[in-house]
Design a protein that fits this description.
- The chain is of the alpha/beta class.
- 20% of the residues lie in helices and 30% in strands.
- The chain has a single domain (2-116), classed as Rossmann fold (3-Layer(aba) Sandwich), CATH 3.40.50.
- It has three helices and six strands.
- β1 (15-19), α1 (23-34) and β2 form a beta-alpha-beta unit.
């Protein structure tokens, strides 16, 4: 975690918040390293929310931790939960940032930045060769 030393100031963070499922372990490890509380959000009825007795109090300084950011969708949902609770969001941290043109209103730090090549369907070499697409993400089957 030394790669994040400048953003992981324990005096500047009260709680680490992660979206389930992928961000839980990373968020837990960040919380453990900082000796801070860690909570996670999860989906219920297609909506991200705090459950299991977790709460964020007004003025609580939070760091959002995610494993992989692609579209930023889960992180945006966690941001809304934190803002609605009155938390002070100090930043976002992830292991892999493979997003393009995703802008949060908070500092984003990552271990790895990946540029993933994308194609329109009419120019896709896999489509041209009849190779079926397999989507391993958490939102689509």
């Amino acid at each position: 975690m030394n790669e994040f030393a400048d953003v992981l100031d324990p005096g500047n963070i009260d709680t680490v918040v992660s979206p389930a499922m992928g961000g839980i372990l990373f968020g837990y490890m960040i919380g453990l390293k900082l000796s801070k509380k860690m909570v996670f959000t999860e989906r219920k009825d297609e909506r991200m929310q705090l459950r299991r007795g977790f709460e964020i109090k007004p003025g609580e300084k939070v760091l959002i931790a995610e494993d992989v950011i692609t579209t930023g969708g889960s992180v945006f949902e966690v941001i809304e939960i934190c803002k609605n609770a009155g938390a002070e969001i100090k930043g976002i941290i992830c292991i892999v940032d493979r997003s393009e043109n995703v802008r949060f209103d908070y500092p984003l730090n990552h271990l790895i930045k990946l540029q993933v090549e994308k194609f329109d369907p009419e120019n896709c070499p896999l489509c041209r060769n009849g190779i079926e697409i397999y989507y391993p993400g958490s939102r689509k089957q």
